[in-house]
Write a structure and sequence with these properties.
This protein is α/β, with parallel strands linked by helices. 45% of the residues lie in helices and 20% in strands. The protein has a 6-stranded mixed β-sheet with strand order 1-4-3-2-5-6. Helix 3 crosses helix 6. The longest helix has 17 residues. The termini are far apart. About 9% of the residues have low confidence.
Length: 160
């Protein structure tokens, strides 16, 4: 009985240590983070209810994983509705095993937040931003990426 209890407690502690909390963020904070980043970033703007968003995330995640030595940070920015934060978004991320830095964008006016990410962004998702401030690389997509496209963009992101 004690062994079972120890195993269960260990699993709970391990799960809590590896949980990926979804933090609330305002657009100004996110824009500052992007601007001041000293490493390559891939930011995916998505929602739990967006099929194309959910399909492309594993492709991006895999492309980044292949270049683990390049210090690329994957940032998932949920645009889910307020009632989905934090429980539904957190559970979804955990269920899908999305490994990234997780945020929920605490903004409702796309006319204000979209241009702070990219002037071309009209508000559609999925939307993905590739940024490397060290090399000046900045590429924005306002549609679902395909697996090869994700692979190519991450490769361009990390080139010197």
């Amino acid at each position: 009985m004690n062994r079972i209890l120890i195993v269960l407690v260990s699993i709970l502690i391990f799960s809590a240590a590896h949980a990926q909390p979804v933090k609330k963020i305002k657009i100004e904070e996110l824009a500052t983070y992007i601007k001041n980043s000293d490493h390559p970033l891939v930011l995916s703007f998505w929602a739990t209810w967006c099929g194309p968003c959910v399909r492309e995330i594993p492709w991006i995640q895999e492309a980044i994983k292949k270049r683990a030595d390049k210090n690329v940070e994957f940032v998932l920015v949920s645009l889910d509705f307020k009632e989905a934060f934090p429980n539904k978004v957190s559970e979804f991320v955990k269920q899908k095993n999305f490994v990234a830095t997780h945020y929920w964008l605490d903004e409702t006016n796309a006319d204000i937040f979209c241009p702070k990410i990219d002037p071309k962004w009209e508000g559609g998702i999925p939307a993905t931003l590739f940024v490397n401030n060290k090399t000046g690389y900045h590429q924005f997509f306002q549609q679902q990426l395909k697996d090869r496209q994700a692979e190519q963009e991450v490769e361009l992101l990390v080139q010197k």
